[in-house]
Specification:
Elements (H helix, E strand, L loop, with lengths): L6 H5 L5 E5 L6 H11 L6 E3 L20 H11 L2 E5 L3 H9 L4 E4 L1 H4 L2 H10 L6 E5 L6 H13 L4 E6 L17 H9 L5 E3 L1 H5 L5 H10 L4 E5 L17 H10 L11 H37 L6 H18 L3 H24 L4
Parallel strand pairs: 1-2, 1-8, 2-3, 3-4, 4-5, 5-6, 6-7, 7-8
Helix pairs in contact: 2-3, 4-6, 6-7, 12-14, 13-14
The structure holds phosphoenolpyruvate and manganese (II) ion (MN).
Phosphoenolpyruvate (PEP) binds next to α5.
């Protein structure tokens, strides 16, 4: 049988991949101190930013190539794999020259197909692992497009990192996770390992464990967590960094769900879901048939399609019943808005049809 394992399966870890290390490399001592502490944790890969894409000028923008030999020392002295962000062809070439193991394309670079193409060309045919962070805007096609550019350049060891999406108003998150997007990503590209970066999703250290747990529950393949020997004094992203000790505590506390129940239970439950889904569609269809009858009546009597009082009544009774059953208001509202919209569309079709 031909071995067709991806780069992560070849690592043969018995736990999700952990990539950890500072947001930015600051000094040789800082880099080596953190790496030596991480060696005692479940982290396999050391990360450090050396070119930092900052939103506004005037902040620390990374030390640049001067830090590359420090990463070489990390690899030689701790055995950890090393990883850095690359944002252009020159960064990519330097990373290859200094034998960095994993290169990642940052969120601000993934948005730009020219930059991604330039990096793909510079890394053509490489065996290095290249990870693509999601673009800062919630655009699945752009994320997948970046992966395709790497695949076309014959880069075989590719992965993706979910780090959340920018929003105009800051919510509880620094970058909104919008979990449906990485779920869709996984469905579209199941062979590409998917790693979650809870540090950049949260923007503060307290939320990291919960976001990591959600990622593992959704069967992400690993975590990238910013880790610093003195987080509060970090030169960038101080609020979201944690110590190597805290990292290990978090890893130990996380529950790793089995991929499968290991027996027929999962199949049985899935069959139940399939049957219920069939019923949902049948019921929606039955509802639409009645909606169409009402549409014909409205046409005959020249009555407007949208009836505000009736809609208020429907949404209110659905929310009351739904919340009594334990469904969230948000969920019931979304479903009913969508059903109502479809009903309006169907009735408009009937009303605007000539000769009926
Ligand atoms: C980083 O990982 O330090 C970084 C800059 O991340 P992002 O590209 O997700 O903003
Ligand atoms: Mn950072």
């Amino acid at each position: 049988m031909i071995e067709n394992k991806n780069w992560l399966q070849k690592m043969e870890l018995n736990h999700p991949l952990v990539i950890a290390g500072p947001c930015s490399a600051e000094t040789e001592e800082q880099v080596l101190d953190i790496a030596n502490q991480l060696k005692k944790t479940d982290a396999t890969v050391f990360r450090a930013g050396i070119w930092k894409p900052r939103t506004r000028p005037g902040n620390f923008e990374g030390l640049g190539a001067i830090a590359l030999p420090w990463l070489k020392r990390v690899k030689d002295e701790t055995g950890l794999l090393t990883s850095i962000e690359v944002a252009n062809a020159n960064h990519a070439k330097l990373a290859l020259e200094f034998d960095v193991d994993i290169l990642w394309i940052g969120a601000r670079t993934t948005v730009n197909p020219f930059a991604v193409q330039e990096i793909a060309d510079a890394l053509k045919d490489t065996d290095k692992i290249v990870l693509v962070k999601n673009p800062i805007n919630p655009d699945l096609e752009l994320w997948i497009g970046a992966i395709e550019r790497l695949q076309k350049a014959n880069i075989k060891n590719i992965g993706a990192i979910h780090r959340g999406f920018s929003t105009y108003r800051k919510s509880t998150y620094r970058n909104n996770p919008k979990w449906q997007i990485p779920i869709d990503f996984k469905n579209r590209l199941p062979e590409i390992p998917l790693i979650c970066d809870p540090s950049h999703i949260c923007g503060e250290r307290e939320g990291i464990i919960d976001v990591s747990q959600t990622a593992l529950d959704l069967q992400f393949d690993g975590l990238m967590i910013e880790t610093h020997n003195d987080p509060d004094k970090a030169w960038s992203d101080a609020k979201q960094q944690i110590t190597p000790n805290r990292l290990q505590e978090i890893i130990t506390d996380l529950r790793i769900r089995k991929k499968d129940f290991g027996n027929n239970d999962l199949d049985k439950l899935r069959k139940q879901i399939d049957l219920i889904d069939d019923k949902i569609l049948d019921i929606l269809n039955a509802r639409m048939e009645v909606v169409k009858k009402i549409g014909s009546k409205k046409k005959k009597d020249n009555v407007a399609v949208y009836q505000q009082d009736r809609w208020r009544e429907i949404i209110q009774k659905s929310i009351d019943k739904g919340t009594n059953l334990g469904l969230s208001i948000n969920f019931v509202e979304k479903i009913y808005k969508s059903i109502h919209q479809e009903s309006i569309n169907q009735q408009e079709k009937i009303i605007n049809l000539k000769n009926s």
